[in-house]
Design a protein that fits this description.
single chain, 172 residues, alpha+beta, 3-stranded antiparallel beta sheet, 3 strands, 15% strand
Length: 172
């Protein structure tokens, strides 16, 4: 167990999850774009560092409005034939992202961590079903980070990128 206060650990690990989710989406979009142009990445990306608010760019897999489910399902289609071992579990990744984006974090649980609760959008007879209820402990965060790291590494490998993996959280 870490010597840092629980809220600091929570914030750092939540940041790891968020960073991994953003990276997964961007790399998967990049793979789809690369696939569409026959493998030449130079043809796929607008010059992101130079983009300014108000600029107009061509609609591509990097700039379209499609959601994460579409992105990961299309990434999986891109690698299905030549590299089926590089597919990712789209449902698991999207479920985690949706829980973080749309769930509710409630005070400290009995285990000294926040509890993440997500509710179904469908209402039946004035009630809503709980679709997730989990204590966001260090172990839970580390399992999620591991799952996302593995997905990032698969996508990076499909892109022939060299990626350095972030390790497990430590109290240093």
């Amino acid at each position: 167990m870490s010597e840092k206060p629980w809220w600091e650990i929570h914030a750092l690990l939540l940041g790891k999850l968020t960073g991994n989710l953003l990276t997964i989406e961007f790399l998967a979009r990049l793979m789809i774009a690369k696939h569409e142009v026959g493998g030449d990445l130079k043809k796929t990306q607008p010059q992101f560092p130079r983009l300014q608010e108000g600029d107009w760019v061509k609609i591509t897999p990097l700039s379209n409005k499609e959601d994460l489910t579409w992105v990961l399902e299309n990434y999986n289609k891109c690698v299905k034939r030549n590299h089926p071992d590089l597919k990712v579990d789209a449902k698991k990744i999207v479920f985690l992202r949706d829980a973080l984006a749309h769930g509710r974090a409630f005070g400290r649980s009995d285990h000294g961590s926040l509890r993440l609760v997500k509710f179904n959008r469908k209402v039946e007879k004035g009630k809503v079903k709980v679709t997730m209820s989990v204590d966001m402990t260090e172990d839970w965060f580390n399992l999620q980070v591991k799952m996302l790291n593995e997905a990032n590494l698969r996508i990076a490998k499909a892109l022939d990128f060299n990626v350095q993996e972030l390790g497990k959280f430590s109290n240093s």
